[in-house]
Amino acid sequence: MPLPKRPALILALPLALLLTAALPAWGAETFRVEGLPRDDSLTIREAPDAGAPALGQIPAGRRVLGFGCTADTPSGLTWCRVKFERVLGWARRRYLVPD
After folding, report:
1. pLDDT at 78
2. Which is deepest, 16, 22, 29, 98, by most CB within 10 Å?
3. What does DSSP assign to residue 48?
4. How many H helices and E strands in the chain?
5. Nearest alpha-carbon partner for 93 in 50, 40, 53
6. Model-level pTM?
């Protein structure tokens, strides 16, 4: 019995996944870290929760890429998925101003 003819779908899905992994800036929004003292920094966390492990710091005034925000968090506060340099994690929306 011949196999169903679905090669386009089978090839398209891995290609789409590859493209989204290789080009994470598609659909990204640029933010600037503000609302902190000049010498302070915003913590990037592993999950959208203040108790989650810290992955890195974003100095005040620096730009980051944002990939969407959510208020569906344990605290009810809004957090955004961000990338700063090589670190990808979550940061409080309160300190992210559209750039």
Report:
1. 97
2. 29
3. S
4. 1, 7
5. 50
6. 0.73
